[in-house]
Design brief:
This protein is an alpha/beta fold. It has four domains: about 90 residues, no CATH class; about 40 residues, no CATH class; about 100 residues, no CATH class; about 90 residues, no CATH class. The protein has twelve helices and ten strands. Strands 1, 2, 3, 4 and 5 form a five-stranded mixed β-sheet that branches. The chain has a five-stranded mixed β-sheet with strand order 8-7-6-9-10. α2 packs across α4.
Length: about 350
């Protein structure tokens, strides 16, 4: 046939392109020529509209010099992996003194030169890894390609983001916490091992103009030590440290010492999660001690304190009347059980929390 067919006839390059198909594709300047669907793959053939192009070397209008077909992996569509067949236009410079010769059209919005994934597929993959906690292998499976193909596409983007210092601007509330990377041995192996188990993570907890906490990860460094946090703060510079007004931390003396040394003007606080975790841990320890002292053994089925160990960790506002009754009966079963009641009540008071945090931070 003399021209491509489509599901509708729309004004375009001689009426050859379908506006509806182009809208569904969502790539400006590129037009759908054909779509083929197999059970596990959607293949879309596309091209740009013919237009006059200047030589990148001399600016003289170049002449058409055939096509080059490129296969690109795109983001999934309708739960199906997608492949784009891009019929790239090639051009030749007609200027005798120009050394450019032939060149091929490029579209950075579609894909980077020599890339195997489209730009939006790479963004989609990073989004899946960041927000959905997907692995690179899992993303590759959804894209219908290989692990190395996905990693080669997203690594330059991640490297550029890691090198962008602008993400540290405007941080007034800085959080720090440990992150356990893995739970296997750190001893060297033939393939190099998995590296350190513990990492230190820095988080931006600044409240924006809308009253929302940013809650975004700023960086991860190896180790869970004072030096790891101190070195990271030194790398940020004095302007960054001077802008931090509140520094949150977990109950680790090394982080507190780093804040005292590097963020002397900032207010050091424990975040709510760790405050509640410390209070719950204290109640659990007292319950176990009283259990052992009154029964001579660890908790067993039928023991009053053992039967309420789970609901003791819940907030009082979340307890049902039945659960409150179980707690009251357990405390009344033995005079020594009142220690657990007192511990839980004191942890909720300001004085109790102050004593608990003071012991935790030395």
């Amino acid at each position: 046939m003399s021209e491509p067919t489509s599901c509708c006839r729309a004004p375009g390059a001689g009426g050859a392109y379908c506006d509806n198909c182009d809208l569904l594709l969502g790539l400006d300047g590129l037009h759908v020529l054909a779509v083929e669907r197999a059970p596990d793959l959607l293949t879309v053939t596309l091209e740009s509209a013919p237009t006059r192009v200047g030589c990148p070397g001399c600016g003289v209008i170049a002449e058409s010099h055939g096509r080059r077909v490129v296969r690109l992996v795109d983001a999934p569509c309708f739960t199906t992996p997608v492949v784009l067949i891009w019929r790239k236009r090639r051009y030749r410079c007609r200027e005798a003194l120009c050394e450019t010769g032939t060149f091929t059209e490029q579209d950075p919005d579609l894909a980077r030169p020599r890339g195997l994934l489209t730009t939006r597929a790479a963004r989609w993959a990073i989004g899946q890894i960041r927000r959905e906690h997907a692995s690179v292998q899992g993303v590759a499976r959804q894209l219908g390609t290989a692990w190395r193909t996905v990693w080669a596409a997203i690594k330059p983007i991640l490297d550029a983001a890691a090198a962008d210092e602008s993400r540290f601007a405007g941080v007034t509330t800085l959080g720090v916490d440990e992150h356990i990377w893995h739970h296997v041995s750190t001893k060297p192996t033939d393939d190099g091992g998995r590296g350190p188990k513990e990492l230190t993570g820095m988080v931006d907890l600044t409240v924006d103009e809308n009253g929302q906490v940013r809650a975004r990860l700023l960086d991860l460094v190896q180790g869970r030590t004072k030096a790891a946090y101190t070195d990271w703060l030194d790398e940020r510079g004095e302007d960054f440290k001077a802008g931090v007004q509140v520094a949150t931390l977990d109950p680790f003396q090394g982080y507190k010492a780093a804040i005292d040394d590097e963020l002397a003007e900032a207010t050091a606080v424990l975040d709510v999660f760790h405050v509640l975790a410390l209070g719950t841990k204290c109640v659990d320890e007292v319950r176990r001690r009283v259990q052992q002292a009154t029964t001579g053994h660890r908790g067993r089925k039928g023991d009053p304190l053992y039967g309420i160990q789970t609901i003791l960790r819940a907030g009082a506002e979340n307890l049902t009347d039945k659960q409150k009754g179980r707690i009251a009966r357990a405390f009344a079963a033995h005079e020594a059980h009142q220690e657990v009641d007192v511990t839980g009540s004191s942890n909720l008071s300001g004085a109790g929390l102050f004593m608990l945090l003071s012991r935790s931070l030395g």
